Amino acid sequence: MRLPWRVLAPHTAPVRRASSVPAGLMNFVPACSTTDAHSLELLQDFVTRARRLFVITGAGLSTESGIPDYRSEGVGLYARTDRRPMQYAEFVRSAKSRQRYWARNFVGWPQFSSHWPNSAHKALQRWEERGKLHWLVTQNVDALHSKAGQKRLTELHGCAHRVTCLGCGAISAREELQRRFIALNPEWQAQAGTVAPDGDVFLEDEQVLHFRVPSCDDCGGILKPEVTFFGDSVNKATVQFVHERLAESDAVLVMGSSLQVYSGYRFLLAARDREMPVAILNIGPTRADHLAELKVSGRCGEVLSVIQPL
């Protein structure tokens, strides 16, 4: 059954709370006023009504851990630079592109892999423990939900902490590959530039000329992060699995995602077809605003600090 549409009262005074984001990490979180009390009340009611909640999270959750995103106004990668992420076809086709990608990833890995879950990740893990959260689908590749202890989890776009061989399909740990990079490039150094969302940094082409990239230990094939690059598609079995978890749920909550990428948006279309109630918590507009019965603007960590899994 669909919940009735709720109109947010614009005149309601905001509730003043301490920021969930440490001052040093605010650079990647878009400007946003404190969520008002009426919106929080409506979101609490939405969560309370749900018995098997299906949650979709995006990069807006991880910006509060200091990981930049692509699309946030003023602070996302697209706003800060004209650089664009690696395309799947380019990675597969060009050894030079792979060299550039892995050199940048090698430099950025120590910082990217050191990020930790924030209060929003921890809250969702508690929702799972309490039986409120039936399944969580994240579009992020940073492993922060796993680090928080989330079990009922699908990493829709893969995980940057794993590496796959395009030849034999072998899976290995990204940390292991870092050790191989160090062994192959003992004298190589590069001055890091701007940090990118998926764990790499910006380097000039001449900086990566002598960087050596290992092949698969098992078959000599091409190594690639086990993530869905732009221009690639999500594994069909994964999509089907997520649709099955959605069918078992009774409400959908989107957090920290503009849903501009179809791979996540498709599940909102499926929720509409099933007449499931949908709520969205995000800073800024999303592709699915017209499908939501409740839209709340706010930082995920701050909002979840007051929403209880009743």
TrEMBL record:
Domain spans labelled Deacetylase sirtuin-type: 33-310
Annotated binding of NAD(+), by residue: 58-78, 139-142, 256-258, 282-284, 300
SUPFAM superfamilies to which the protein is assigned, alphabetical: DHS-like NAD/FAD-binding domain
Reactions that this protein is recorded to catalyse: N(6)-acetyl-L-lysyl-[protein] + NAD(+) + H2O = 2''-O-acetyl-ADP-D-ribose + nicotinamide + L-lysyl-[protein]
Positions annotated as active site in the UniProt record: 157
EC code: 2.3.1.-
UniProt remark on cofactor binding: Binds 1 zinc ion per subunit.
Cofactor: Zn(2+)
Protein name per UniProt: NAD-dependent protein deacylase
Primary gene name: SIRT4
